[in-house]
Each structure stands twice: as C-alpha cells, then as structure tokens.
Amino acid sequence: MLSDALIEVTPEPAAHQATVLLPALPVGTVVVDEQSGRVGRLMDRQGGRHLQLRPLRGGLEWDADPARVRPATTGERLSAAVAEANAASRDDRLRPLRTDGLLHPADPAPPR
C-alpha cells in the first residue's frame, strides 16, 4: 500500500535535472531496484538521496536511488522468494517462507 505522503527526489547531478515528487513508500515495502534489477525490502531512507534495501531473506543492505525504485508486483515478489529459496537450499540455509503477501521468513519451528 502506498502512502499519500510525497518525498522530494533530486537525481544526480542536480545541476541539469528537475526535482521529482514520488510517493513515499513505507518501510517494509517489497520493492524493485530498477538500476540493479534486484528485489528487496525497504529498510530506511537516507536523507532523500538514497534508500536502503535488504534482500527478502536478509543479508547486506544496499543503497538505491529513490527515482529508480518501485513497488514489486506479486509475481516479482514470488520470483525473488523462489530464487532466494533455491540459492539457500544449495547453501544448506533453507528456511520455509510464509506466503502472507510480504514473503517474510517463517517463524522458527517450536522445539519438540
């Protein structure tokens, strides 16, 4: 769900380009970084110039240009989750996923 708030984005270099107003995405939104092609979860905003994104299954955050980030479609979220689950299974890091629309890692299983 998009917020009604707007953020001001001035792409680099600012000398020849106009400021763009984009809808502010809430922290936790699953997004696509169109510059890198990666899907991640929005973790933080860095002064309007960068967004910090993290892979859906955790890992190192990366900086993204707010003008090149958009909400992920359902298909993109599922595709990213499947790709990460496949990679994790090859690395013995497999954890089940909840399919609650946000694709959060599942809670740990209770001890037996």
Short account of what is shown:
By secondary structure, this protein is α+β, with helices and mostly antiparallel strands.
How are the elements arranged and paired?
Layout: E1 6-9, E2 20-23, E3 30-33, E4 38-46, E5 50-54, E6 62-64, E7 69-71, H1 74-90
Antiparallel strand pairs: 1-2, 3-4, 3-7, 4-5, 5-6
Give the spatial strand order of the biggest sheet. Answer: 6-5-4-3-7
Oligomeric state, counting identical vs distinct chains: single chain
How far is it from the N-terminal to the C-terminal residue, by CA? Answer: 38 Å
What is the number of E strands? 7
Which runs of at least 5 residues are low in confidence (pLDDT < 50)? 103-110
Q: Helical segment tally?
A: 1
Structural class: alpha+beta
Average pLDDT, all residues: 74
Q: How would you sum up the major sheet? A: 5 strands, antiparallel
Shape: globular
Strand content: 25-35%
Helix-residue proportion: 10-25%
CA radius of gyration = 16 Å
